[in-house]
Design brief:
Blueprint: H1 15-19, H2 24-32, E1 42-44, E2 47-50, E3 53-57, H3 70-73, H4 75-83, H5 97-110, E4 115-118, H6 121-133, E5 137-141, H7 146-157, E6 161-165, H8 168-177, E7 182-187, H9 199-208, E8 211-216, H10 241-245, E9 253-258, E10 268-271, H11 274-283, H12 285-289, H13 295-333, E11 345-349, H14 356-365, E12 368-369, E13 371-373, E14 384-388, H15 395-411
Parallel strand pairs: 3-12, 5-6, 5-7, 7-8, 8-9
Antiparallel strand pairs: 1-2, 2-3, 4-10, 9-10, 11-14, 13-14
Helix pairs in contact: 4-13, 5-13, 6-7, 8-9, 13-15
Length: 421
Amino acid sequence: MATATHTEPLARHDLLAHHDPKWKDLEQLLSEGLMFDAVIDEIEGRRIRVGRTWLIDFASCNYLGFDLDLEIMESINETVHRWGTHPSWSRLLGNPRLYLDIEERLTALLGAQDTLVLPTITHIHMSVLPVLAAGGTILLDRQSHKTIYDACVYARGQGAAVQRFHDLEELEAELKAAPPGKLVASDGVNSMTGNAPDVKAMAHLCREYDATLYLDDAHGFGVLGERRADETSPYGMRGNAIVRFAGETYENIVLVGGFSKAYSSLLSFLTMPPHWKNLLKVAAPPYLYSGPSPTASLATVLAGLRVNDERGDAIRRRLYQVSDRVLSHIRSLGAYTPNTLGTPVIELPLAEGRDLTTVERFLWDNGIYVTLAPYPMVPREQVGFRIQTTAIHTDDEVDELNAVLTRLWERGDLQSAASHT
């Protein structure tokens, strides 16, 4: 009798590549790497312990250090005792006063017409962008975050047309050609390069061709803000995001941002004219159906807004100093980073032929924890890692990072700035 064959189930690290071979490199990092799926056992300031290994954390997006701010942490207890751990109504059924207080203060900070807060930016993209597109044409910046791209694909399934553009010249040509009902979608501060598009020029084109400009400033809100003669750093003042940093108004602009980066809290928002708000309350599923943010997040957002008013610009000055020390050192080495804006998002692509797993091991062995950027999460020529600086990194921690970057440069692991001139 023939013996029945038995096919072993695919191992965890084989599943993605079995589905699509392009994920092979990422699977290697998942199965052999140290900085994906790492279990962090303890933190002490910006140092983290993984097992027995202590590392300096340059993978955190807590840019302002609000995650460890005592005033903000202490705000949680009173609010939880008043509201419980979770106000578990959908917002359509019941709005704790906390939400309205946040929207009022946020609208004033941004200088917007109105704001609506929802749990996450991904929720906003997937639910709001298709509503705003309304079966018209979405012009998508090719550098935009994947969550915006995914939302555009979803909107296309609901009848919208989607076109992608590389630059302002191509954007204008597509705006001219597209029928009425146009929406332009782009990042504010890009999550990899740390740079921002020419918002002023994009806003001008959108107004000229009667389009809405939809900006995701997840990494800019809380860091960049309005420019003033008395500003404490090139980041501007108040951290009120890319629209104000560019000296723009909200005419024809929808700004999307979140508190999960600079403010270290689970909540996001979008700006809009007041007459859009009631539409989105019934047309955006997260407002109708999603469980809301935990009370602790609402409390820390409100406390963060108070801290931002009282000492946010001093914190941003420190953040700029830390970021500038790292960027200046990279430039002094002759290494390449696309970051020209000076934001705390610092991408370092690897030199051709260098192996990300080997570089990851070197960083780990030298006590540095970063955000890895493998293919296909980024194009092959951009494979490398991202450093995120925060206002509470110490000078000694920055010195340690810069010493390790020097050694990576001397080993030939980093791209040369000269190769990009």
